Amino acid sequence: MKINRKLQSAALVSVAMVLFLILVSSAASAATGQGASSTGTYAYITNMNSKDVSIIDTDTNTVKATVNVGDSPYGVAVNPAGTKVYVTQLNIGSYENAFPESIVQKPALIKKTKEYMATSEGTVSVIDTATNTVTATVTVGSSPYGVAVNPDGTKVYVANLGSSTVSVIDTATNTVTATVNVGNYPWGIAVTLDGTKVYVANLGSNTVSIIDTATNTVTATVPVGSVPSGVAVTPDGKKVYVTNEYDVSVIDTKTNTVTATVPVGSSPIEAAVNPAGTKVYVTNSGDNTVSVIDTATDTVTTTVPIGSISMPNGVSVTPDGTKVYVANYGDNTVSVIDAATNTVTTTVPVGSNPIAFGQFIVPLSPGPFANFSASPTEGKAPLTVAFTDKSTGSPTKWKWNFGDGTTSTQQNPTHKYSKVGSYTVKLTTTNADGSNTATKTDYIKVVTKPIASFTAKPTSGKAPLTVPFTDKSTGIPTKWKWSFGDGASSTEQSPKHEYSQEGSYKVTLTVTNVAGSSTLTKTNFIKVTTNTRPGIYSENK
């Protein structure tokens, strides 16, 4: 009976305190290219209570090394080159001592966070994969959980549950260069394959925050299910899967809306998308299973039993999509699922309470990893742009598509854009092992002086009257300044404004870009009435 109570306690705690597994492809040495098959790949798994990271060789499914990182390692992310591993740590000593109560559901974690974790300082350990040693420690926000690396390996994003922020680490200096306020108790975090957006699951707000990586600002907030924890983005960037308390929300990234809700197993914790983008694997800690979702239909096609006391938490897929690795908090193992048969083929013993949490940043390939920058990215026609190749993996050939019908095979070309418009740029890099393409949509903006224009609907009604305004300006403006005629203003592109008093209001919009600015004023545009004085307006000047 004592054994049963102990296992039950561990299971219940696991449901509340799961963290990050990221299976990555890293070379046997820092200089070796990454394989598209499982050859030469390793799984880095955090063992929360043994204070270390187990490194599994996915060819042999044996632990090849163990790296001590200190108290309470949780999240793991590996850079695209496979040379650095980033591990989040709460530095709270014993996990059981910090959270002695059995927590049945995720919502109870919020209470515990308020009582304890908001005061704890968190760190990120940096492991050199060539030597399997910790080479740096970076102080971040309170209670860091999820962690993700951008596609070119220059930035690391850390979700700090205790301080409700995301820390942005510069990997060249191992320093925090920005702190982004997000929703309450951020947990899971993921970066898109083009590196332009970061998605953060906010446990306490029931939302997902979307961060623009160019500005390190939250550009949208999407309501999802209750207490979301895990987040995974499809390779094409069109869908985001979020594990909630009872189900999985599917976000359309074009509209930032939930388009489907998928019932899965009990207490879903984390999700991982396969490299082809056809399947999503969801760990269900409450019933010891993994749900397999078909991304074409957003339905569960298979449920894989893991083990009676496994308590699966973190999950990830090999770069070739043939294997799924699951960290089992309850029995100190990692399960290996054959993706073709949806059966557990191997169980690997690791450290104490493996609780890794997260997803792949990018499925690695034997070829180079394409990436580039440009300067300037916006300006008046004709615009001359200098492009800089930032690909990894030692490419030997380059193919640029500038989006205006022209191409180049130079490594770092200069290109002149002569017509106004937004241009999507592609770079394909190649070496003896393969090729890879990076696409940046609407990356180059060639502009002319904008012409302000806008509409609104409704333009009349009873107070309080909420009016959505729609920017219709031409010339690709980058800044907007609205004056609503009642003393209020806005800098949003298409804002909503509430008029609370009777009157006739003049609305002004000024739009700006690098080529200049334009202002449009519509007098007596919004007419607000009251029940007591219908049909009477007083002009607001």
Describe the structure.
The protein is mainly beta. The chain has three domains: 2-349, Methylamine Dehydrogenase, Chain H (7 Propeller), CATH 2.130.10.10; 372-447, Immunoglobulins (Immunoglobulin-like); 454-540, Immunoglobulin-like (Sandwich). It is built from three helices and 45 strands. Strand 43 (503-513) and strand 44 form a beta hairpin.
Number of strands: 45
Oligomeric state: single chain
Largest sheet: 6 strands, mixed
**What is the CATH homology-level superfamily of the largest domain?**
YVTN repeat-like/Quinoprotein amine dehydrogenase
Percent in strands? over 45%
* Number of separate helices: 3
> How would you describe the shape?
globular
| CATH topology description of the largest domain | Methylamine Dehydrogenase, Chain H
CATH architecture of the largest domain: 7 Propeller
SS-based class: mainly beta
Considering DSSP H and I runs of 4 or more, what fraction of the residues is helical?
under 10%
Radius of gyration: 26 Å
Distance between the termini: 79 Å
Mean pLDDT: 84
Uncertain stretches of 5 or more adjacent residues: 1-39, 93-105, 110-114, 360-365, 534-541
The total domain count is 3
The CATH C-level class name of the largest domain: Mainly Beta
Defining traits:
Immunoglobulin-like, five-stranded mixed beta sheet, mainly beta, disordered C terminus, 51% strand, six-stranded mixed beta sheet
Summarize the entry for a quick read.
The protein has three helices and 45 strands. It has 541 residues and is mainly β. The strands form eleven sheets. Strands 38, 40, 41, 43, 44 and 45 form a six-stranded mixed sheet that branches. A five-stranded mixed sheet has the order 30-36-35-32-33, with no helix packed on it. Strands 1-2-3-4 form a four-stranded antiparallel sheet, with no helix packed on it.
